[in-house]
Amino acid sequence: MNLDSLAASRRHSHAFNDGNPIAEHNTRRAMALTLVMMVVEIAGGWWFNSMALLADGWHMSSHALALGLSAFAYACARRYAEDHRFAFGTWKIEILGGYTSAILLLGVAALMAVQSVDRLFHPSAIHYPQAITIAIVGLAVNLLCVWWLRDHPAHSHGHHDHGHGHHHHGHDLNQRSAYLHVAADAATSVLAIVALFGGMYFGAVWLDPVMGLVGAALVSLWAWGLIRDSSRILLDAEMDAPVVAEIREAIEGGEVPARISDLHVWQVGRGKFACAAEVVTPSAVDSDHFRRAICVHEEIVHATIEVRNAPIGAVAA
């Protein structure tokens, strides 16, 4: 067997990113519906001379932009899936989209807070009936989008989380970012409706800006959680993930005495990890022995193992 044939027989093909066609489709139609509602609110605000509706319409435009960003990330990840320049696939394009979307979400929260403070000190007349009607329609649209973008258990791969769901290893963070944008819009719509009814029936004009501040705080909290989870993946901060302990146990807890002298683990897809390890052992075993032990765990899809033989007795059993 020549070198080319030997290399071909040892070559592995990897599909690190399975994609998420359901989430991509739902993100696109949520974006389309959000754009339609945005136009309705802006037109209604102009027609009824309602600054509240105009503000909410432009606020919804930021969510339409974020949904478009999520859809664009899905499309890019799918388009470049076979591009050899991406050593470990294109999944992080989706994560980058989620991270950028979270930054936009923080911007929306800041804008909401500034506008609410300004409205608190400079109240203006509100056309309550028209504003309430369109706000209710907006809430219905947002709830429909929330339903579309909810996390589907069949696609979440949650069994890889091993009880550490705060890492969201098996979840689609790009889908989650889109979901949070429409959920934030739904929450602010609820707060706006409560404030508008309070102002119309009880004269509590101050409720509108106060509810805006509450909504801004809530959106900021959601955005920060998304930034934390997506940035961990972008920075490969995975060495405290449960899969690292599984790798150590598979190598050091087997029948062959061995110790890991160097280990690097990073995430390459939803619930999928790659690792590079240096193993010290006194036994005459090759890297395939340890690779087979590691790959019993299905979330480990790529393993590079370097074996260094140590003198007999140098490694404790």
Automatic annotation (TrEMBL):
SUPFAM superfamilies for the chain: Cation efflux protein transmembrane domain-like
Transmembrane segments: 30-48, 60-81, 93-114, 126-149, 178-204, 210-227
Protein name: Cation diffusion facilitator family transporter
Localisation: Membrane
Name of one Pfam family that matches: Cation_efflux
Membrane topology annotation: Multi-pass membrane protein
Domain named Cation efflux protein transmembrane: residues: 30-235
Keywords: Ion transport, Membrane, Transmembrane, Transmembrane helix, Transport, Zinc, Zinc transport
The keyword Protease is annotated on this UniProt entry: no
Record has Ribonucleoprotein as a keyword: no
The species this protein was found in: Tahibacter aquaticus
MF annotations from Gene Ontology: zinc ion transmembrane transporter activity
